[in-house]
């Protein structure tokens, strides 16, 4: 199976497979940022399929557990702590759905980072 | 109060507000092209920071006086490879009590500054030490660091010297954020791994604005790729802020209430142009962070892992 010696190719396929917005859709609020800030990652998070790239099963299950817990927390908080003003805790990023802006932004991101090595040498 | 229905309805309405803003950023970025996009962060020079060196050991053993069997039991829940979850038996509470007795002033200050105990019954020894020591350090800064092990301190100081002095409080703020947030989830992360190195990038001129800086992991693809990710994230964010802040009337009488109650930045001080642009910029930051954590592991290594 073809590999990814060049990380820019991997970024391109992650974006074209929609994994950036999928992660925004499936993960709870306050997940991606602290993961990156803490230097954490999930081994085997990505797998190759006939249609491109997808999340590995273990990573999908992991995200499901987190998201279920998160939804439970915000629903309970909304029910019992109305005075805390926590309405802003949404169920997912509003532009991570079909037709949302994350995919386009990620495409620009991938195009720019692919161009960066060439820009640096010129 | 937001019911489940209104929460989903709010998401739909927010989609209608933020998608055109994202399209504005995308279209303008495509017009100017990558070269001009990176011009916005000219002078940005991301630096490597060691993950381990960002922590400073406590001047005492946090498990002093705790039964060795208890520590072994606690360590079994290590999120670095063991899936067995730990059910609370009061272990952390006993560790906390023991430390609070021995070091009432400093430890009391630390525990009041973080909510890790209430969220994290499965935190292992490393995480506990990390949480206590990093919070301790960043609350007491150099005064507390003076009493730490000198070799570790010198390593840390050497790492921090690479970062201009005016930017150091910013990186401390980022690290505080990761410490308080990541522990909400670590009990459910049996396979989580952690890189040794991070890359810290900031826009050319010194700024305390959170979105003018980014801290990303350095994975298998190396430091140069991590620096590219850092630079691209900063460039996209800089461009987005510049384009969207110049737009007229993003916040209108019709959407102000929704943005105030249903976006985190709007809820801070009420929705305005800047808070709404910041919400978009945080989304762009998340894209950079998502790509960073998904590309920490090279594809080749992933295949070996799967076999």
Pick out the low-confidence regions of chain A: none
Gyration radius over CA of chain A = 17 Å
Rounded to the nearest angstrom, the distance between the terminal CA atoms of chain B is 49 Å
**pLDDT averaged residue by residue of chain A:** 81
- The total of helices of chain A stands at 5
Overall pLDDT of chain B: 66
Q: What is the rounded distance between the termini of chain A?
A: 34 Å
Instruction: Name the largest protein-protein interface in this structure.
Output: A-B, 71 and 87 residues
Broad structural category of chain A: mainly alpha
User: How many domains comprise the coordinates of chain A?
Assistant: 1
Radius of gyration of chain B: 22 Å
Helix content class of chain B: 55-70%
Number of spatially distinct domains of chain B: 2
Q: State the helix count of chain B.
A: 13
Shape of chain A: globular
Low-pLDDT runs of chain B: 1-5, 53-59, 74-89, 105-156, 176-190, 301-307
Question: What summary fits the major beta sheet of chain A?
Answer: 2 strands, antiparallel
Task: Say what oligomer this is.
Answer: heterodimer
Concise synopsis of the structure shown:
The complex is a heterodimer of chains A (122) and B (307). Chain A has 122 residues and is mainly α.
